Amino acid sequence: MMELYLACGLVYHSDGTVSLKTPSIQKAMVYADTHTQYEVWELLPTLKERVEL
Questions:
Q1: Please, which residues have CB within 8 angstroms of residue 20's CB and are 6 or more apart in sequence?
Q2: Residue 6 located in a structural domain
């Protein structure tokens, strides 16, 4: 899991810094509302096919 996180979850910048690909608002939601992850999982089947994941 850690290898996948490092390979897909980080952005390496030309100045040598590294940041997360996740937008700040999504990071904040993870820590602010612990129920969001369950609501998203339950609503996943209702997601339109045109929405790219």
A1: 9, 10, 11, 27
A2: no
Residue for token digits 């390496």? 12
Tell me the pLDDT tens digit for each residue of 26-36. Answer: 877 777 766 77
pTM of the complete model: 0.41
Residue 8 lies in a domain: no
Whether residue 30 lies inside any domain: the answer is yes
DSSP letter for each residue of the chain: -HHHHHHHSEEE-TTS-EEESS-HHHHHHHHH-TTHHHHHHHHGGGS-TTS--
Task: Decide if 43 is inside a domain.
Answer: yes
